[in-house]
Amino acid sequence: MKEESLETILDQEYAGFLTQEFSTYAKEIPYETLFSWNLSLIQASKTGNLAVPFAEKTTISDLLFKKRDNLLYFSKIFNQLTAVEKGFENLLKVDTGTKSEKVQEVLKELIFSNPLSIKRGNKEYILCGEGEQKEALEKALQYQFFVLTGGPGTGKTTVVANVIRGLLRLGYDLKQIGLAAPTGRAAQRLKESLENTISNLRTKNELDDSISEIPTSTLHRLLEYNPRKRNYKYGKNFPLPYRVIILDEVSMVDLHMMFRLMEALPFGVENFRFILLGDPNQLPSVEAGAVLSDLVKSLKKLNSENLIELKTSHRQEEEFSSISKAAELCVKENVSLSEFQENLPKTLGLDTIFPGSRKEDLKGFYQIRLDYKKEWKEFLKRTAEDKILPIFSKLPNPNSPGELKEYLNKDLNRFKILTILRNGIFGSEYINKELTELILHHKKGNLVQIGTKTYFSGLPILITKNDRVRGVYNGDTGLVLEVQTPNGGSELRALFFIEGEIRDFALDTLPPHEPAFAITVHKSQGSEYDSIFIIYPPDPSDLNTEEVSLELFKKEILYTAITRAKRSAFLVSEEKLLEYSLRNRFERLTGFKLV
């Protein structure tokens, strides 16, 4: 039985269960009609939609369903949607902006007296000193609610670092500022980026140095989820204890989590500030909704001053220019395959990617052409030998906290394989299995077998399910290392860098996890890597045993994958799926609107 057929059967069973339950409260609606509505909404939610088209004039039960603008919703989803809409509307209504003398004085200090700056050659560049970054800084300090969007290298973190500097000078206390992101890795990256940006101060001072002391957390940690009670500490009746909340990577936030956060915002606190950062061109959230892209579209329609889009990349590395150009073409409307390929360096083959004799890796963005039937196994073998095995000679000393922190924060993210698919021979599961087997042919040392999983020193692992008791979350990446035990022996343990400290766990106590040589593009959101391979499967006509859903191949998934790379990105693809990605977008039916 095909997986899709099984999924359809399960959907129908769940729709039948809901219909039985709902029939008690909606006796006036025929069973077949109720079943049809339930099944449509269940299936729509699986592709991220909040609603389905609904032009019928049938009377519906408000207790179970809601109808608006010819769209039908489950009542629970509709109530969350309207609560989020009203939350944003309230933020906009009370926020008329201020150009007080104090704000102007602070801006002068941030831009002229003691700016963030970088030197290139003999020239000093003032960060946020002009153009769109300066405008963003001014607006962020003038308005209590502010949305800042932009792609990689456009300076979102630079602006936010200056905003925090400004808020401290406007009287906000360090402990009143909450920084968060959807995943642990994204939260850690936010902290690292802020620290790196603050290091560019022309004149060091205690106030600005203190910014590095602000903790960053996941949204779940910010709201203090209680796994035993299955609820959040902070919510409608107990608001968050902050005057400033800054949320990064908002494209990853689904409707439900934004609803939870909106409920917990301290609207009654004087001069409360709410700042959202993100890139609306990235993949939408895994769960239902498209909060950031919906919000940006609505603010544009309102000509709102509360939104600034950063469009200019300031990364100067030569190798990044072709990566940046590829990302730019991804989001361009009506871009053709030929236009995309004309702007890329020449297409490469296996011998060019893995030259063996070359001392330095290629830099920039390249497309790789493979004969999938003949070269796929060889590609994986060469990847293991050329890209992964060398890493094992550079593993950190488990007794050196400094080395461990450096490795977990940086070296662990030097190289990654990103896949569109999870299943099948071109998906992350199979690639991880194959690479693990290839590595074990060369690997010496302690091996541990737990169930079907094999562990060895140097194995990167990815958490796939939240474990709030242990404090590790879906998307967190760790490393298996051999560490000394108190009795003088050694054992393999999993190490993670969590909220500024190294934590280790016994392998048999870990929540669900998997090897992380290859991960899906969805799992890569919030992370950056020096070098990546992006794996597209062969075009559908070339596949004999696997079905590929075209729903996955959209502009956003290609853009998200490409923008994970800092130095080099290699796209393994044929023509048809790549062209399909360039021509189509994720369109989620949400009905979101601000008035």
Automatic annotation (TrEMBL):
The keyword Isomerase applies. ATP binds at residues 150-157. GO terms for cellular component: exodeoxyribonuclease V complex. Its EC number is 5.6.2.3. Keywords: ATP-binding, DNA damage, DNA repair, DNA-binding, Exonuclease, Helicase, Hydrolase, Isomerase, Nuclease, Nucleotide-binding. Signal peptide: none annotated. It holds the Pfam family UvrD_C_2. It catalyses: ATP + H2O = ADP + phosphate + H(+). Residues 516-572 form the UvrD-like helicase C-terminal domain. One of its GO terms (biological process) is double-strand break repair via homologous recombination. GO terms for molecular function: 5'-3' DNA helicase activity; ATP binding; DNA binding; exodeoxyribonuclease V activity; single-stranded DNA helicase activity. It is an enzyme of class 5 (isomerase). CDD domains: DEXSc_RecD-like, SF1_C_RecD. In the RecBCD complex, RecB has a slow 3'-5' helicase, an exonuclease activity and loads RecA onto ssDNA, RecD has a fast 5'-3' helicase activity, while RecC stimulates the ATPase and processivity of the RecB helicase and contributes to recognition of the Chi site. A helicase/nuclease that prepares dsDNA breaks (DSB) for recombinational DNA repair. Binds to DSBs and unwinds DNA via a highly rapid and processive ATP-dependent bidirectional helicase activity. Unwinds dsDNA until it encounters a Chi (crossover hotspot instigator) sequence from the 3' direction. Cuts ssDNA a few nucleotides 3' to the Chi site. The properties and activities of the enzyme are changed at Chi. The Chi-altered holoenzyme produces a long 3'-ssDNA overhang and facilitates RecA-binding to the ssDNA for homologous DNA recombination and repair. Heterotrimer of RecB, RecC and RecD. All subunits contribute to DNA-binding. NCBIfam families: recD. Belongs to the RecD family. This is RecBCD enzyme subunit RecD. It comes from Leptospira selangorensis.
